[in-house]
Design a protein that fits this description.
Layout: H1 3-27, H2 34-39, E1 50-52, E2 59-61, H3 67-74, E3 77-81, E4 84-88, H4 90-94
Antiparallel strand pairs: 1-2, 3-4
């Protein structure tokens, strides 16, 4: 995850805890702070972006949520075939990976 994502996550969760703590102090009910626990978020991704090679079925995963740059770094190419896009790994580009 990028530093900006971590900073945004920390600021959002801090604001939630501070606001609900202020409400709990103002209304003199400690259980209001429990709502802060419900509204804080985590940074666990719900899915990991991936692409599958249309030639051999090899899969590439992107750890930083940017599949385009991960594909370029690994040498994958994306071509348009008619009305759909196809992804090819470096092996298939050289003609070695076709099954």
């Amino acid at each position: 995850m990028s530093k900006a994502a971590w900073t945004a996550w920390a600021v959002k969760n801090s604001i939630v805890v501070i606001c609900f703590t202020a409400l709990a102090v103002h209304f003199n009910h400690w259980w209001i702070v429990l709502f802060a626990c419900l509204l804080t978020s985590s940074l666990a991704p719900k899915w990991i972006p991936r692409r599958i090679c249309d030639g051999c079925g090899k899969t590439i995963y992107a750890e930083d949520m940017d599949i385009g740059s991960a594909m370029r770094k690994a040498g994958w190419v994306r071509r348009k075939n008619g009305d759909k896009w196809e992804d090819f790994c470096p092996d298939c580009q050289r003609g070695e990976g076709h099954v």
